[in-house]
Specification:
Layout lengths: L12 H16 L10 E3 L8 E3 L2 H8 L3 H11 L10 E3 L3 E4 L3 H11 L16 E5 L12 H18 L3 E5 L7 H13 L2 H6 L1 H45 L6 H36 L2 H9 L3 H13 L3 H25 L16 H10 L3 E4 L2 E4 L8 E4 L7 H16 L3 E7 L3 H14 L5 E7 L2 E2 L16 H21 L8 H22 L6 E2 L2 H4 L7 H18 L3 H6 L9 H11 L1 H11 L3 H20 L8 H24 L9
Parallel strand pairs: 5-6, 5-10, 10-11, 12-13
Antiparallel strand pairs: 1-2, 2-4, 3-4, 7-8, 8-9
Helix pairs in contact: 1-3, 2-3, 4-21, 6-8, 6-11, 8-9, 11-12, 14-15, 16-17, 19-23, 19-24, 21-23, 21-24, 22-23, 23-24
The chain binds one RNA strand through helix 2, strand 8, strand 9, helix 15 and helix 16.
Length: 668
RNA sequence: GCGCCCGUAGCUCAGUUGGAUAGAGCAACGGACUUCUAAUCCGUAGGUCGCAGGUUCGAAUCCUGCCGGGCGUGCCA
C-alpha cells in the first residue's frame, strides 16, 4: 500500500486488525512486517468478516508448512477483545469474525460523533495542492470539464475530511489565444447593443464566430489539402502493398496482411475526416453573410495571433479590453460552479504568472538545463525523444513555462507535500516531463502526481460530441439532466396514491437529482477508464446511481417522519443496539467500514471506492429494510435499536454523498 | 517507428494491488405491494476474464509474445 502509514491513519477495523497482526508477525519473523497488507476484508461472508493471507508467503520464506505458520500466527495474535477465535482454512487462510459485542461498542462510539462518524483524523496531516477544473475563460465550459471538476472536488473534500490541509487552485486559462479571438471579434464584429445588454452572451457569440472563421481558413488552406495529399499517398502505398510479392514466411505474411488492413483502415478514417471537414466548410460557404465575412478576413488566423501577441507584450488597447472582458467571463464560469456546488480557495490563472515566465526560462538556462534548439528553448530529458519546450522560437511562452512558474509559486506560497493535477490522460507525457524537469530544477522533496482520467464517450463509443462535432456544452448538459430528472420525479410522484411533493419541491428535488446523477456517474467509474455518458443509466433508480442513493436516504428518513421520531433524541437516548438478525449485523458492519473506503479513496485518488462502498451500504440497508420492521418491531428496545441503525445509515450515506459533492433530499 | 493505457456476462461497468466457487446494474425469465417510500426488494439464467506460453501453493491481476482498440509523440492547451 503506497501511502499506508503516511496518508492513512484513520482508525478503522482493517487498520486495527493489521496492527494486531503486525505484533504477531514481528514475533515470528521481524522481516515479514509488510505482510500486514495481506489482512483484508473477506470476499465471501462464509469465510468471516476479514481474512489474513500472510501464512502462505511467510511459510515460503521460512520453508515451513503454511498451516503450521498460520497456527503460530494465531497463537501469537491478540484479538480476543474484537474477534471470535480465528479459524484456519484451506492452505493457511486465517479467517476472522468480529464479535457482535465489539461491533456494538464501536457503533456506540460513532453515534455521538456528529461531524466525523468515528473516522479519525490523520495522525500526520499532509499539505496538498489540488489543481483541477482549469477551464478556459471566454470559451464555454464543456463536457470535458466535468471529470476534472467533479473528481478534484471530491478528492479535495475527502482529504480535508481526513484532516489534511488542502489548497484548491483553479488554474484558469485566461491568457491564451481565445482572448486574441474575442479581442479581434470585438474590434471587427461587435454588436454594441447586444454587448451592452449581455456582455457574456455577445463575447461568446464573438468567440464562436471568430473561431469558426479561423477554422474555416485553416481547414480550406491547410487541412483539406493535407488530407487530400495523404489520400493520394495512401492510395499509392496501398497499390504498392497489393503489388508486392507475398513473403513465404508465414509470420511475415501475417505482418504484411496486418499492415495492409491497417493502411486500409487509416485510409477510410482519413476519408471520413475529410468529409467532416468539408461539411464544416460548407456551413460557412452556404451562408452568404458568413462567406462574405470569411472572404473579407482571409488572414484572420494570423490576425488573432497578432492580437494575442499584442496583449502579451502590453499593448494598452488590448490590455484594457482584456481587463474589461475578464470579469464577465469569470462571472459566467462562476455561475456554473455555483450550480455544481463547487468552490476553490484560489483561482490563479495563467495571467497571474505572466510576468514570471521570462525568469523561469533564464533560470533554466543559467542552470544549464535549457538549451537552444531549432530556435526554441528546450529542456532535454533522459528517456524522452522530444524535448520539453519552454519557449517557442518566436519568443512566446508555452503552458510548460506557465506550469513551471506555477510549481515555483506553490512551493514558495504553501510548501505542499504533494501537488495533484487532475487532468485528462492525454496530457500524461506533458506531466511526466514537467515533473522530471521540476525534480532537476528544485531541491524540495515534493510529490507531484498526475491524477489522470479517461474520456467521456457518447453512446456510440466515440468522444461525446454534438451532432455537428462540437464539444457538448456543460450548461446544456446540466439542464437536460435536471429536466429529465424533473420528468421522472413528477411522474413517479403523481403515480402515488397521495403525491408527496409540491411543484416547487419537485423542481428542487430534480435539480439535486439531475446534478447529482451527472456527478455520481462520473465518480462511480474508475477514473482511469473512459466511460459512456448515458442519461438513462445515470438517472436510473436501480443500480449504482446518485438517485438510488438519494432514494435510499429518503426512505430511511421517511421512517422517522412517519413515526414522528426525532433522530437526535434516539442518538442521545440510552439505546442498546441489538444485532440478532443477520441483516442487522451486516448493516452494522457496513456502517463501520466508511473509514476503510475513505482510506482507499486517498490511497490511489479514486472516488469510485467511495461510491462502491455507499452502494454496498444501501444494498445492505435494503435487505435490512425488507427483513427487519422498525416502527413495528416486536418491542420498544428493538425498535429503538433499529431506529439507531437507520439513523447511522442515513448519516453515513449523507456524509459519503457530501464528500462526493452531492446533495441529499429529505423526500423524493 | 517509439511511448503510455485498455480488452471481464448480450450491453454499461466493478474487481481492495497475487487469494478460496470472478461480481453489480441494465436487458431476459420467475416471484413479492390492505404491512415503515414497490422510484423498491428477492430469486433464476447468463463467463475459455482477447489468445498462447511463463512465474507459484494460488493469476482477471505479475512477466513474455501475439491479436484487437484508444491516446500521445518538437514549438496548442
Amino acid at each position: 500500500m503506497r501511502l499506508a502509514g503516511k496518508t492513512i491513519s484513520s482508525m478503522n477495523i482493517l487498520s486495527e486488525l493489521r496492527s494486531r497482526f503486525l505484533t504477531a508477525l514481528e514475533a515470528i519473523d521481524p522481516g515479514a512486517v509488510e505482510l500486514t497488507t495481506m489482512v483484508l476484508p473477506s470476499q465471501d461472508a462464509k469465510f468471516g468478516d476479514y481474512q489474513a493471507n500472510c501464512a502462505m508467503p511467510l511459510g515460503k520464506r521460512l520453508s515451513k508448512p503454511p498451516r503450521e505458520i498460520a497456527q503460530q500466527l494465531v497463537d501469537a495474535l491478540d484479538v480476543a477483545d474484537l474477534c471470535e477465535p480465528p479459524e484456519i482454512a484451506g492452505p493457511g487462510f486465517i479467517n476472522l469474525k468480529l464479535k457482535d459485542t465489539w461491533i456494538i461498542e464501536q457503533l456506540a462510539q460513532i453515534v455521538p460523533d456528529e461531524k466525523h462518524l468515528g473516522v479519525d483524523q490523520a495522525q500526520t496531516p499532509r499539505v496538498f495542492v489540488l489543481d483541477y477544473s482549469s477551464p478556459n475563460v471566454a470559451k464555454p465550459m464543456h463536457v470535458g470539464h466535468i471529470r476534472s471538476t467533479v473528481i478534484g472536488d471530491a478528492l479535495c473534500k475527502v482529504l480535508r475530511f481526513l484532516g489534511h490541509r488542502v489548497i484548491s487552485d483553479n488554474h484558469i486559462g485566461d491568457w491564451g489565444t481565445q482572448f486574441g479571438m474575442i479581442i479581434f471579434g470585438y474590434k471587427h464584429f461587435v454588436d454594441e447593443k447586444s454587448f451592452a445588454d449581455d456582455a457574456v452572451a455577445e463575447l461568446s457569440r464573438l468567440y464562436k464566430l471568430v473561431s469558426q472563421l479561423v477554422a474555416y481558413h485553416d481547414t480550406t488552406r491547410q487541412k483539406i489539402p493535407a488530407l487530400e495529399q495523404r489520400i493520394v499517398e495512401h492510395a499509392v502505398l496501398l497499390d504498392q502493398m497489393h503489388d508486392a510479392t507475398i513473403p513465404e514466411d508465414l509470420k511475415e505474411q501475417k505482418k504484411v496482411n496486418k499492415r495492409l488492413r491497417q493502411a486500409e483502415g487509416q485510409l477510410a478514417e482519413v476519408r471520413q475526416t475529410l468529409d467532416g471537414l468539408r461539411k464544416q466548410v460548407a456551413v460557412v460557404d452556404d451562408n452568404p453573410q458568413l462567406a462574405t465575412i470569411a472572404a473579407e478576413h482571409a488572414e484572420i488566423g494570423a490576425a488573432v495571433l497578432a492580437e494575442t501577441a499584442a496583449l502579451h507584450s502590453g499593448d494598452a488597447t488590448n490590455r484594457a479590453l482584456w481587463e474589461q472582458f475578464l470579469p464577465a467571463c469569470l462571472a459566467e464560469i462562476e455561475a456554473t460552479y455555483r450550480r455544481l456546488n463547487v468552490s476553490f480557495d484560489h483561482a490563479l490563472g495563467e495571467s497571474f504568472y505572466e510576468d514570471r515566465l521570462k525568469g523561469v526560462v533564464s533560470d533554466l538556462v543559467q542552470r544549464d538545463m535549457a538549451v537552444e534548439s531549432d530556435g526554441a528553448m528546450c529542456v532535454f530529458l533522459e528517456g524522452y525523444d522530444a524535448p520539453f519546450i519552454v519557449q517557442k522560437k518566436d519568443g512566446a511562452f508555452l503552458y510548460a513555462t506557465t506550469d513551471l512558474a506555477t510549481v515555483e509559486h506553490r512551493l514558495k506560497e504553501w510548501s505542499p507535500d504533494t501537488i495533484l493535477y487532475v487532468v485528462d490522460h492525454r496530457q500524461s507525457l506533458h506531466f511526466e516531463q514537467l515533473f522530471a524537469t521540476v525534480r532537476l530544477w528544485r531541491d524540495e522533496q515534493i510529490a507531484l502526481e498526475h491524477v489522470s482520467f479517461g474520456t467521456v464517450l457518447g453512446e456510440d463509443g466515440r468522444p461525446f460530441k454534438t451532432r455537428s462535432g462540437e464539444a457538448v456544452g456543460l450548461t446544456g448538459l446540466l439542464d437536460e439532466a435536471v429536466e429529465r430528472a424533473f420528468k421522472i420525479v413528477s411522474q413517479n410522484d403523481a403515480a402515488r396514491p397521495e403525491p408527496l411533493l409540491s411543484e416547487e419541491e419537485r423542481h428542487n428535488v430534480a435539480e439535486r437529482i439531475g446534478i447529482g446523477a451527472i456527478k455520481y456517474a462520473d465518480l462511480a467509474h474508475n477514473r482511469t477508464s473512459d466511460y459512456v455518458f448515458s442519461y438513462d443509466k445515470m438517472l436510473a433508480m436501480t443500480g449504482n446511481t446518485a438517485a438510488y442513493m438519494q432514494y435510499s436516504y429518503a426512505r430511511v428518513r421517511s421512517i422517522f417522519s412517519r413515526g414522528g421520531i426525532d433522530a437526535k433524541a434516539i442518538r442521545t437516548g440510552d439505546v442498546q443496539i441489538v444485532l440478532d438478525q443477520p441483516a442487522e449485523r451486516a448493516l452494522a458492519l457496513a456502517i463501520l467500514r466508511l473509514s476503510e473506503a475513505l482510506d482507499r479513496v486517498v490511497e490511489d485518488y479514486r472516488p469510485n471506492h467511495l461510491t462502491a462502498y455507499l452502494f454496498d451500504l444501501a444494498s445492505t440497508y435494503s435487505e435490512f429494510f425488507e427483513n427487519c420492521p422498525v416502527l413495528k418491531a416486536d418491542n420498544e428496545a428493538l425498535k429503538n435499536s433499529r431506529l439507531l441503525l437507520c439513523d447511522l445509515t442515513a448519516r453515513t450515506i449523507a456524509l459519503g454523498m457530501t464528500l462526493l459533492g452531492i446533495q441529499m433530499v429529505e423526500r423524493m
